[in-house]
Amino acid sequence: MGWLTEAVWSPYAVGAGIGILSWFTFLISKKPIGCSTAFARTSGMLEKIFRGGKVEKKEYYKQFKPEIDWEWMLVLGIIVGAFVSAVISGDFELVWIPSKWSSAFGTNVVFRVFIALAGGIFLGFGARWSGGCTSGHGISGTLQLAVSSWISAIFFFIGGIITAFFMFYIIGMWG
Amino acid sequence: MKEYNKVKKDKKPLIAGLIFGIIFGFLLQKGGATKYDVIIGQLLLEDFTVLKIMLSAVVVGMTGIYFMKSMGWVELYPKPGSAGMNIIGGLIFGAGFAILGYCPGTIAGAVGNGYLDAAVGGLIGIIIGAGLYAAVFSEIKDGILKKGDFGNITLPELLKVNHWVVIIPLCAAIVLFLYWLETAGL
After folding, report:
1. Is B1 on the interface with A (CB under 8 A)?
2. B168 touching A, CB under 8 A?
3. N or C end of chain A: which has fewer CB within 10 A?
4. Does the pLDDT at position B168 exceed 50?
5. Which domain, by its residues, includes A36?
6. Which pLDDT band, with edges at 50, 70 and 90, does B1 fall under?
């Protein structure tokens, strides 16, 4: 069982594993893997704490009720599964600043967290705008050959590649 | 007793979701997709791990799921879309993908892996971003989101061909592309 504690598996083995996993989510749960609606529901649940039942009258939350569902539990499971995998392979570490970030933008923790927060806002907003994320559109949608998902996935990478090049080769070079 | 059975029945899908999530998170971590450096490496076109994972998941997942569909075992759930949704939303998502360095699924894995920038900054940002979208949704839903609407169509339906006519060449193209990546040393 040594393979379970190896730090890195071949990306092809991991990808095939995710493909097989999605057979079972379709068969057993009748759902494709996806992650971003969990964040929309969480946001609705938090808003409910402050504003009460009014939140459920918002049009968007009528579609995506602010409650814990299958996909919310899936995202919770990802945290657990990644934790288990990292711990058993000795790869778990508490890190504020990833090394590729620090090599371009330095080691200021507040700056990194601030930019991560800003990036997260774009990501959450864009995921709900396009109707899915790298899992929901990028894997589950493309494997169903959905036109919406192929277009989204292609534009995720176009937007991501342009922004990453701008950050690392234009802004990063100044700093 | 009836009430109890109802609750029990409602919990089952949640437990299944949790178990699927644990396996998914385990795989993402083993693949390195829970790491900022790997994701940014992909967007800078230096490290193709993320695409290798995604494309091999698509080949395996697509073949199996379309086979099960032709046997009548599963249904498909293609998402509806439009040019306004998928192009503009995709570009906004892409910008966030690069600025943050994680996506909504891999950030959960990054949290489990111990990355605090993901847990403290990114996770909260995604929740805020999704909340902002809920706030503007009723303003944009009949305008920009409807531009170039094409519904929940799939590629075989669009091309009016049997799904295997799309799947077989697509799988071949993906395998060739991955083979090319390996021979190019990427």
Report:
1. no
2. no
3. N
4. yes
5. 1-94
6. very low
